[in-house]
Design brief:
Elements lengths: L1 H10 L7 E3 L7 H8 L6 E9 L2 E8 L6 H8 L8 H8 L16 E5 L7 E4 L6 E3 L1 E2 H8 L3 E3 L9
Length: 158
């Protein structure tokens, strides 16, 4: 199971006990926010793309949309999301539980600047009914991110 991969990954930092599992789905930003009783913006959604023939994950705040121009500027290619089958095969997690923990070798992870306005965020933990609360430094470390990108418009701007 995908959640077991995420749990094993997070065990390296003694964080596996912080994974929360729900009796309801948390497969979308809205469902996760309801399950956790937090604002949707604090859900750290993990988006999966194909870049130069390899899977790339972008973790962004739940209230933003990736801007195609910014994506192309950052990755020098058009944003092309993985299909659910591709995500499962290439990333190692199924849609609804895609997260940056316990992913297949070679998957690059980027964190979007939209997350920086929060002290803690809630990414999925490998299943469609799980999440973990992490500080931004914890997310940086545990995700093994390549770096930060700025792919979304500032949701707090007028």
């Amino acid at each position: 199971m995908s959640i077991e991969r995420a749990r094993a990954h997070l065990r390296k930092w003694n964080l596996e006990d912080r994974i929360q599992e729900f009796d309801v789905s948390s497969a979308t930003v809205e469902l996760a926010a309801a399950a956790l009783n937090v604002e949707p913006a604090r859900i750290a959604k993990t988006l999966s793309y194909m870049v130069d023939g390899a899977p790339v994950l972008v973790v962004a705040a739940g209230d933003v949309r990736v801007n195609n121009r910014k994506f192309k500027d950052a990755f020098h290619t058009k944003a092309k999301m993985l299909t659910p089958d591709q995500a499962a095969e290439l990333v190692g997690h199924t849609v609804g539980g895609v997260c940056p923990f316990g992913v297949n070798e070679g998957v690059k992870v980027y964190l979007d600047a939209s997350l920086k306005r929060f002290q803690t965020v809630f990414p999925a933990a490998g299943s469609s009914n799980s999440a973990i609360e992490l500080s931004i430094p914890e997310l940086e470390e545990t995700s093994g991110c390549v770096g930060w990108v700025d792919l979304a418009p500032d949701p707090t701007a007028d």
